[in-house]
Specification:
With 86 residues, the protein is an all-alpha fold. It has one domain (16-81). It contains four helices and no strands. The chain has helices spanning 16-29, 33-46, 48-63, 70-81. The longest helix is centred in the middle third of the chain and has 16 residues, at 48-63. The model has no long low-confidence stretch (mean pLDDT 92).
């Protein structure tokens, strides 16, 4: 069997009940277990994983001094609302 371009093999332990569900889904959809697991991981990365990565990037930006002070932002908003910004 040839591997998909850019893919790597990993070994992991999966609880028996989770593996049973994966196998049932794979059989019902006529897909491989690997396909089902990759799809599940992609969904995780789009949801919770994306939030974690965004938080990490935010911490990196703060550490690099790339942020706005909330008091300055609020003051700017108040000036805009009051029509004092050209």
């Amino acid at each position: 069997m040839t591997e998909a371009t850019g893919s790597e093999s990993v070994t992991l332990r999966i609880p028996s009940d989770v593996l049973s569900d994966i196998e049932s889904i794979a059989e019902a959809t006529e897909r491989s277990r690997s396909y089902i697991i990759v799809r599940a991981l992609k969904m995780y990365l789009l949801n919770e994983g994306a939030d974690i990565l965004a938080s990490a990037r935010g911490r990196e930006q703060i550490a690099a001094g790339e942020y706005e002070d909330v008091d300055t932002v609020i003051a700017d908003m108040n000036r805009i609302i009051a029509g004092k910004v050209a």
